[in-house]
Design a protein that fits this description.
Two copies of one chain form a homodimer.
Chain A (H helix, E strand, L loop, with lengths): L5 H19 L4 E2 L1 H8 L3 H9 L5 E2 L3 E3 H12 L5 E6 L3 H8 L1 H5 L2 E8 L8 E2 L2 E5 L3 H8 L3 E4 L6 H10 L4 E4 L12 E4 L2 H13 L4
Helix pairs in contact in A: 1-2, 1-4, 2-3
Chain A binds a DNA duplex through helix 3 and strand 2.
Amino acid sequence: MKRIAESTVRRLSIYLRFLEEFEDRGLSTVSSEELARRGGTTSAQVRKDLSFFGSFGKRGLGYSVPELSSALREILGLQKEWRVVIIGAGKIGAALAQYRGFRQRGFNIVAVYDTNPEKIGRTLEGIEIRAMSRLEADVETEHAEIAVIAIPGDGAQEVLDRIVRTGIKAVLNFAPVQLHAPADVTVKAVNMAMELEGLSFALTNRES
Amino acid sequence: MKRIAESTVRRLSIYLRFLEEFEDRGLSTVSSEELARRGGTTSAQVRKDLSFFGSFGKRGLGYSVPELSSALREILGLQKEWRVVIIGAGKIGAALAQYRGFRQRGFNIVAVYDTNPEKIGRTLEGIEIRAMSRLEADVETEHAEIAVIAIPGDGAQEVLDRIVRTGIKAVLNFAPVQLHAPADVTVKAVNMAMELEGLSFALTNRES
DNA sequence: GCTAGTTTGTGAACGAATTCACAAGCCTTC
DNA sequence: GAAGGCTTGTGAATTCGTTCACAAACTAGC
């Protein structure tokens, strides 16, 4: 299959969100124009994005809401449940562990890890905080497929290396550092300080 | 000035992070090659990124660490202190309010807003939680320039509209919905569910 | 001050992503 | 069943971002 741009995948996520809203409201069809308006893009973009994966619409009519949302869930791999481990039970790890949006979309958080003995054994919204040392064994027995790094920057690369050795191929990084991993491991970074700096730049360099 | 790509601004942030590390270690010069290696890009990319703003290096030598970091701080608008309000004192709002990285980089959180009467009046790491109704008056008196939306999706567009009416031109959105704002307002979104879906896609459609 | 060895800054070439534009296909009405 | 009105799917054109490649400029060693 042809390589799909990351921006395309992001937009598919956005389209799916609207489709689910439409599904709830019982709408049966939607046009690329409508999806574009909501998602802040153009109708040509919507159709091109979808065309990478097949043709899902009917000319003159638009897209069937249930069919397209099911197709997008399939494409995005959201039909199955993903098993996720979170590394770090600090403020961010805790906020993530309790975030209902994850489970809703099929991301099942199986455990949270921390090195602080005071935290180990407690639970966060029903999820057990475990000793960091158990990570490797647990990933194996729990069949975890996604790891979330929610610890300070210093230890993050080391933790990522451990995660990679367990065989996990997808990592979401909240630590404010640039991490390096083998090419077959997908690492996505969420860096709040960097986003704020983007805003700072926009405010500073606005067209006069 | 020529329009600068968002990807360029992101990389400038990354370069600055390394430069500050080098500054702490007392290194005096650095080459585009070294910055590229650390930041996971190419030396040509580094030089091109910088060339949009001027020439900061010396041929044959590289870049002066203090000069370049100062220049980047200037470009990114990090010389001044930005005054930030956070809307929502839930888990995410609280995690953001206590995140030390913000103040460290000149983002001064002046207040957190919530509608829950139980929370109003309490403090989060020394930052007062205030009634949502005070938002407009406070932005005016406190001269806030950046707003962070950390509330559930339902109310987010409405809150954004209020923020826009106060005259704030930069917003960071953590609510898992697509928001619409006038063109002169920069809205950046951090959507954790969407990032996880990107990972799900990567795991599902890996080259065989 | 000449030579060898670096490293920058930048047009030009390339490649990737978006937008354009239109034929093809479907629905509805008469 | 023909005509009019939509909307898709997609090559072609365009725009945007990255990489190449090399002259220009610097340092160090002799």
